């Protein structure tokens, strides 16, 4: 009788599994580009790239990148470490700022000459955390949201490298890492004027119409919590296991 093998998270994508080492060394993207974890000394370049995507980019996580803290727990997660334990310890020590940085994902695209030509930053969603925290008796669900939901804060490719599939490759790796780590939802927003709806749709995300919302509460806390775009913003999202 054929032996049944348990399907591992992320294996349905048909992609190479991202190990901690592969995330550091980089995985191949288009045109000889490698997609890898950003290094602390690249924080300034990453910040200037991401500022082309988000005018009012908060720089807290990028300061953490310069200090070698950004994304460190997710990296350990790729080695099989349980992320819930450091998270609970951080909550007990009232140090959620460092925890949020350590649970972020800073990716860069490096071309074959060694230049950084793109960057992506995904983070735990402050809006989701604070909304869930305000629900009486649901503090632990706010922590759970950090383990299950991530916000793609910004993705940017330098102008001279546009149109070579680098943005798509950064998004693809981001999705792959989170699905491997058992996340359930990735979402993000862009300034509506950028008109990136067709772009994110092509990358496998659902783009919300103005006024439309998604329920991010029922899955985590059994209470509906509607998440929608801020003023002048368009929201895109993708649940694990659903393409759109
Ligand atoms: C959006 C962005 C990241 C795309 O990166 P990229 O590497 O050029 O994108 P890809 O090569 O993966 O895809 C290119 C395709 O997207 C299309 N595209 C790029 N910007 C677009 C836009 N604003 N609207 C619709 N399509 C767009 C291109 O026309 C191209 O189409 P084609 O494949 O049919 O030729 C890049 O244009 C960028 O850095 N823009 C400035 C920052 C930004 O707006 N970031 C997103 C908000 S967080």
Automatic annotation (TrEMBL):
InterPro entries: Acyl_CoA_acyltransferase, GNAT_dom. It comes from Streptomyces olindensis. PROSITE patterns: GNAT. This is GNAT family N-acetyltransferase. It holds the Pfam family Acetyltransf_7. Residues 79-226 form the N-acetyltransferase domain.
């Amino acid at each position: 009788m054929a032996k049944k093998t348990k399907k591992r998270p992320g294996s349905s994508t048909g992609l190479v599994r991202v190990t901690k080492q592969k995330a550091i060394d980089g995985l191949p993207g288009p045109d000889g580009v490698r997609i890898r974890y950003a290094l602390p000394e690249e924080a300034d370049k990453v910040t200037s790239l991401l500022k082309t995507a988000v005018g009012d980019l908060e720089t807290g996580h990028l300061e953490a990148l310069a200090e070698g803290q950004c994304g460190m727990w997710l990296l350990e997660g790729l080695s099989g470490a349980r992320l819930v334990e450091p998270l609970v310890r951080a909550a007990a020590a009232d140090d959620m700022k460092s925890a949020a940085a350590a649970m972020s994902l800073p990716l860069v695209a490096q071309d074959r000459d060694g230049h950084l030509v793109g960057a992506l930053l995904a983070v735990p969603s402050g809006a989701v955390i604070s909304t869930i925290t305000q629900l009486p008796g649901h503090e632990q669900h706010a922590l759970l949201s950090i383990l299950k939901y991530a916000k793609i804060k910004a993705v940017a490719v330098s102008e001279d490298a546009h149109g070579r599939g680098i943005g798509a490759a950064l998004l693809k790796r981001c999705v792959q890492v989170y699905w491997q780590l058992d996340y359930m939802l990735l979402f993000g927003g862009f300034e509506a004027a950028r008109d990136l709806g067709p772009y994110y749709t092509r990358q496998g995300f659902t783009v919300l119409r103005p006024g439309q919302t998604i329920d991010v509460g029922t899955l985590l806390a059994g209470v509906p919590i509607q998440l929608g775009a801020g003023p002048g913003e368009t929201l895109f999202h993708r649940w694990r296991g659903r393409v759109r």
